[in-house]
C-alpha cells in the first residue's frame, strides 16, 4: 500500500481527493490546521478512514510540521491554500505568504523527506490574467498570468497562485523532484465538508440570493470529483511533468441558472441578468490527452443541490 500526504485535507477539493485515495487503498497522511475542529470531522467518517487516514496538525508556514506529516510518504498532493470569497484586508499576509512561502515549504519538505513525486494544485488564476495572450487563441499551459496585471486588478489570490506555481516548478526541477501542477477552473460540485467553501458560493448565490439583477458573466467550471480524478491521474503517470489545465465547461451565469431552474424551479433565482462583453477560451486538451474525462454539467448541478440540502445550507423549498 502506497503512503501519500495531502495538505489541507479538510477543504472542499482535498476532501474528495482523500476520499478517492482511500477508496484506491492508499494510506493517507492529511494535514489540517486543527484536527479537533468540527469542520474536519467529516474526514473521519470517510470509508477506510479508520484504518488508513492519519491526520497531522500543521500550518503551511510550519516547515518542520510539514516534514513530520510527509515522513514515510512517496507522494504529496499539495492542495492547501487560502481561498476567500472576496477581498481581504491584508492580501500579502493572508493570501500571498501562505500560497508562496507555503508552497516553497512543501516542495522543500518533499526534498528533505525523500518524497518521490508531488502534485501541486495551482489555478487557472495563474493562467488567465494575461492581457497579452492573442484573443483568438484558447489559453493553454503556455499562458501565465501577468504579475503587473494581477497587481493592477488587485487579483492578489491569482498573483499568489502564479508566483507559487512558477517557483515550485523551478525549485522542483533544480532539486530533481518529480512535479506536476494542475490548474483547475472554478470548482463546483457536491461538498463533503459541512462549512461552505468560497467557490460553492457561485451556485448557492444563484439558488438563494434572489438578486434583482446579476451580470451574465461567462464562468469556466469543473466538477470537484473530476478535479480529484485529475490529481490522481497525473500523479500516477511519473513521466508527466509541468502544468495541466483542468476545466470542463465555459458557461454563462444565466445558462447555469436556467439549468438549475429546470430541475429545481422553486429557488430564489436572480430576477434578471445584464449582458457583459466576454470571450473566454480555455483549453484542457493536454489533460484530456492523458485520458482525463469529465461528467455532464447537469449531473454536477443536481448533485451539488442534493449535497446542500443534506448539509443544511439550502432548504428544500
Ligand atoms: N475552489 C476553486 O474554485 C478552486 C479553483 C482553482 C484552484 N483551487 C485551488 O484548490 C485548492 C483547494 O481549494 P478549495 O476550494 O478546496 O478551498 P477550501 O475548501 O477553502 O480549502 C482550502 C484548505 O487550505 C487550508 N489552508 C489555508 N491556509 C492554510 C495555511 N496557512 N496552512 C495550512 N492550511 C491552510 C484550509 O485549512 P483551514 O480549514 O484550516 O482553513 C483548507 O483546508 C487551493 O489550492 C485552491 O487555490 C480552487
TrEMBL record:
SUPFAM superfamilies: NAD(P)-binding Rossmann-fold domains. InterPro entries: Epimerase_deHydtase, NAD(P)-bd_dom_sf, NAD(P)_dehydrat-like. The keyword NADP applies. GO terms for molecular function: oxidoreductase activity, acting on the CH-OH group of donors, NAD or NADP as acceptor. Residues 4-239 form the NAD-dependent epimerase/dehydratase domain. The keyword Oxidoreductase applies. PANTHER family: NAD DEPENDENT EPIMERASE/DEHYDRATASE, NAD-DEPENDENT EPIMERASE_DEHYDRATASE DOMAIN-CONTAINING PROTEIN. This is NAD-dependent epimerase/dehydratase domain-containing protein. It comes from Ficus carica (Common fig).
Amino acid at each position: 500500500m502506497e503512503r501519500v500526504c495531502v495538505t489541507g485535507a479538510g477543504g472542499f477539493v482535498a476532501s474528495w481527493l482523500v476520499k478517492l485515495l482511500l477508496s484506491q487503498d492508499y494510506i493517507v497522511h492529511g494535514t489540517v490546521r486543527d484536527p479537533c475542529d468540527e469542520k474536519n470531522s467529516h474526514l473521519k467518517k470517510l470509508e477506510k478512514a479508520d484504518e488508513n487516514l492519519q491526520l497531522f496538525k500543521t500550518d503551511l508556514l510550519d516547515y518542520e510540521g510539514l516534514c513530520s506529516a510527509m515522513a514515510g510518504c512517496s507522494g504529496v498532493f499539495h492542495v492547501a491554500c487560502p481561498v476567500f470569497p472576496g477581498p481581504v484586508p491584508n492580501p500579502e499576509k493572508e493570501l500571498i505568504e501562505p500560497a508562496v512561502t507555503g508552497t516553497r515549504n512543501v516542495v522543500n519538505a518533499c526534498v528533505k523527506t525523500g518524497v518521490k513525486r508531488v502534485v501541486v494544485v495551482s489555478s487557472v488564476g495563474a493562467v488567465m490574467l494575461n492581457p497579452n495572450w492573442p484573443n483568438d487563441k484558447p489559453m493553454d499551459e503556455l499562458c501565465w498570468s501577468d504579475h503587473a496585471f494581477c497587481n493592477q486588478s488587485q487579483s492578489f489570490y491569482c498573483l499568489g497562485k502564479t508566483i507559487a506555481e512558477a517557483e515550485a516548478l523551478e525549485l522542483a526541477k533544480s532539486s530533481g523532484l518529480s512535479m506536476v501542477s494542475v490548474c483547475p477552473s472554478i470548482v463546483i460540485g457536491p461538498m463533503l465538508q459541512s462549512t461552505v467553501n468560497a467557490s460553492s458560493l457561485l451556485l448557492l448565490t444563484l439558488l438563494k440570493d434572489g438578486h434583482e439583477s446579476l451580470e451574465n458573466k461567462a464562468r469556466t467550471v469543473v466538477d470537484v470529483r473530476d478535479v480529484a480524478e485529475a490529481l490522481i491521474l497525473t500523479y500516477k503517470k511519473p513521466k508527466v511533468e509541468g502544468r495541466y489545465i483542468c476545466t470542463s465547461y465555459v458557461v454563462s451565469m444565466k445558462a447555469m441558472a436556467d439549468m438549475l431552474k429546470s430541475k429545481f424551479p422553486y429557488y430564489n433565482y436572480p430576477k434578471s441578468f445584464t449582458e457583459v462583453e466576454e470571450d473566454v477560451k480555455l483549453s484542457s486538451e493536454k489533460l484530456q490527452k492523458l485520458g482525463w474525462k469529465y461528467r455532464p454539467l447537469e449531473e454536477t448541478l443536481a448533485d451539488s443541490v442534493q449535497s446542500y440540502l443534506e448539509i443544511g445550507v439550502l432548504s428544500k423549498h
